[in-house]
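Replying to the earlier thread about multi-chain prediction with a worked example.

Input:
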Amino acid sequence: MGNVLVLAEQSHGKFPKTTLVAITAGLAAAGKNGGECHAALLGKGVEGLAAELAAHGVKKVLVVDDPALEHYVADAWSSALAQLAKDGGYSVVLGTATAVGKDLLPRVAVRLGAGYASDVTGIVDGNTYLRPMWAGNVIATVQLEGPAQVVSVRATAFDAAGTGAAGAVEKKSVSIDDAAKKTKFVDYAETKSDRPVLTEASIVVSGGRGLKSGENFTTYLEPLVDALGAAMGASRAAVDAGFVPNDLQIGQTGKVVAPTLYIAVGISGAIQHLAGMKDSKVIVSINKDEEAPIFQISDYGLVGDLFKEVPALTEEVKKLKGH
Amino acid sequence: MKILVTAKRVPDPNSAIKVKPDGTGIVTDGLKYVVNPFDENAIEEALKIKEKVSGTEVVLVSIGDKTAQEQLRTGLAMGGDRAILVLADGELDSLGVARVLQKIVETEKADLVLLGKQAIDDDSNAAGQMLAELLAWPQATFASKVELGGDQKSATVTREVDGGLETLSLPLPAVITADLRLNEPRYASLPGIMKARKKELKEIPVADLGVDVKPKLKVVKLQPPPARQGGRKVASVQELVEVLHSEAKVI
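Result:
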């Protein structure tokens, strides 16, 4: 019997799309393993959130409420999640490849003596997965050996789970050694924005080095972003240059997005950037260099000066939307 | 203080990577190899600590065949003190890598291990975290800033996470994985390259470590990703909005 335990992250009392994606993947993995999909909710004062999680198609939610788990820290959470997995005899522990998932799940794999596959984009069977390698230039079919598996899934590869029959909620306690409580959370400087979350938005407008400055992001890009009700992203070059904060970076080692519409402005299209957006449904690029590699993967390309074209595009969008 | 840093040999990130027709690997003809870019950030950070804290030794580690000597010499040329090459045939998975590194860490009695957050070939983003768990050490991944405590017994690390920047405090010994903006890796100077030739590079066959490196993750086959259909150019923003609305129906 192969039951799956899904790590359910919550943020400010809500379950982000990345958690609902993990549930969908968990349900698929459970199906392939002939078992059930359960979810693990860890934290301090999170019991009240369990019912909402249980309403998203999992058979059971395990809740661990422990002061040591108030903030996410790898060592304490690894101890807690691994205990839940061992005590419950789960065959698979699964989470989304968020900053938390990537940080935590490899440690859990070690604790469980399990094989680990990261950034999985497809579940082929009970222990076979697809995952990108070489910045997405290669899709590998990989197999995990052994009775236990740990998997992180790419958020853009699965749909968000909807609500369904309500699962059960079970309170659990774990015992976390002092040896696993060495890390101290100090601070989280969260970028505040009224815009849609980058990894959840259906339209993303990204700026690259071509914008030339942070002020230009504000003056030229943001009006387009807001006219479209989009999220804003950026290339690594723009972040490195200090134009915008790090959490806007899209690419092999930044965020991977796959919105319905991706508009790349002043981005040349380095392999590493493409790795983060080439699964978008429709890709549009605006660049003054007609040889820019980004045009090769764009559905629609506009060769032109972005400082002229972007304001004009913003006006056309506003006209279309009747403003 | 002793810092262990990884220097993985990977294909140049700007290479065009192609899958062999039989799916058993990538085409390696003509590929240039470099130190994994994130490992370069890790090496740079180790060297910066060495410059600040007297008596620090920076030991580079790589796992692979003899060709990996090249990447270790690069790290030595940047300023590393000595290097260890664990000779291993065939692919190790992240757990195998972590187990090898654990043995080296324990033998060397390292105080700090710095690795790149991920290798740009397999993109696993796992070895550092697994090593930390095997050692029962705290970790700070995706580090964009590292500050050691005055007595080198702790570190305050700022990390790039999904929503912004997170700061953690950890006692040493610890594992820290480097992100891009941690620092600007230095180029090896000509004197550095000359000195590197005389620095110790020890080769250890993996069997001598007595570590179980049997992989739990096996790569069964490789294939190229689905190709995108070619697109077209539009002549104006008016045309662009028109096609996005009527043809693609995305706005």
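Chain B has one domain: 2-221.

Feel free to reuse this layout for your own posts.
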